[in-house]
Design brief:
The complex is a heterodimer of chains A (181) and B (120). Chain A has 181 residues and is α+β, with helices and mostly antiparallel strands. Chain A has six helices and five strands; from the N terminus they run H-E-H-H-E-E-H-H-H-E-E. In chain A, helix 3 packs antiparallel against helix 6. Chain B is α/β, with parallel strands linked by helices and 120 residues long. Classes of the chains: A alpha+beta (181), B alpha/beta (120).
């Protein structure tokens, strides 16, 4: 039973407010958003910060719903995906982790590196280019999620890929929303 | 012409499209699971409306929040409005919501429709 206390300590040490681990659907997205909103309300968070955090959370959660690759291995007790929100020194930190196919790692990494290399105006231009040029994909995405997260948070997107096996990598993404605007 | 009236929910906006009373409004939160499916009836309504439209169409956006998939569909709605003579957009945003103000400005740069900005 020690893992409970360990997890509790880990959450406190990392200033985590909310962790969700498991299946991601639109219904779960709405529940997680509602919990996080209530949490920010109870902390008396400013409305513009709340909106930015909400914005980043929606894109993160819907990214997982739409883009997380199903791990179809035998041992499918593997975690499906994880979502966390924490608050550290006044900044909100929204993190997600989900498996993606190894073959998609370079593509995702390339998009994130491109976004992280752009300033405010560059991101605005990229946003306009994508919105003008794209159709909604069959997965329902507009290809704007990462760009929007970078714009709304005002910070670059930290990421990591850990190879899980010869088919999948675990994609971790971290977005920081500064508390003092 | 039939009125399109959809109640807002926690993830879909309220829609009111009423030719007779000259009310055209999308308001609330837009983060539907299937954005294209949600906006389809709106785009279809506008297609019919375009064939026999009012002299003036003041389209109101009063959104609290929309996700990126919705932003693409909002642009589709604006593009449909672009072809209707006498259209203008009234873009509402909360006074402290710079992001929503900027989003409206960006849309106004993407289509040839006069935009008016108002806080609420």
């Amino acid at each position: 039973m020690k893992y409970i206390y360990d997890l509790h300590k880990t959450m406190l040490a990392n200033n985590l407010i909310l962790i969700y681990e498991g299946e991601f659907t639109q219904e779960i997205t709405k529940s997680v958003l509602a919990m996080a909103e209530r949490n920010m309300d109870s902390m008396g968070e400013e409305s513009n910060i709340k909106r930015k955090v909400f914005n980043v959370m929606v894109e993160c959660l819907q990214n997982i719903v739409k883009h997380s690759d199903e791990v179809d291995d035998q041992d499918s007790d593997q975690p499906t995906a994880i979502f966390m929100i924490g608050k550290s020194n006044g900044d909100y930190i929204v993190t997600t982790g989900n498996p993606i196919k190894n073959e998609n790692v370079d593509k995702v990494k390339g998009r994130l590196d491109k976004i992280n290399g752009l300033d405010k105006d560059g991101l605005k231009q990229l946003y306009k280019e994508i919105i003008k040029g794209t159709e909604i994909s069959d997965k329902g995405g507009a290809g704007l999620g990462f760009v929007d997260m970078a714009r709304k948070s005002g910070n670059s997107l930290d990421y990591a890929f850990e190879q899980m096996n010869d088919k999948y990598s675990f994609f971790s993404l971290k977005s920081t929303i500064s508390g003092q605007m | 012409m039939e009125i399109l009236n959809l109640e807002g929910t926690e993830d879909t906006p309220k829609i009111m499209l009423d030719k007779g009373n000259g009310i055209f409004e999308i308001s609330g939160r837009s983060l539907p699971e299937d954005t294209a499916e949600f906006y389809q009836p709106i785009l279809e309504w506008l297609e019919v409306y375009a064939q026999n439209h009012n002299d003036k169409t003041e389209f109101v956006f009063k959104l609290e929040y929309f996700n990126t998939a919705s932003s693409k569909l909002i642009l589709d709605v604006l593009s449909a409005l672009e072809d209707i003579d006498g259209t203008s957009v009234l873009w509402y945003f909360r006074e402290d919501d710079e992001d929503m103000e900027e989003a409206g400005e960006e849309f106004s740069e993407l289509v040839e429709i006069p935009f008016e900005f108002k806080t609420y």
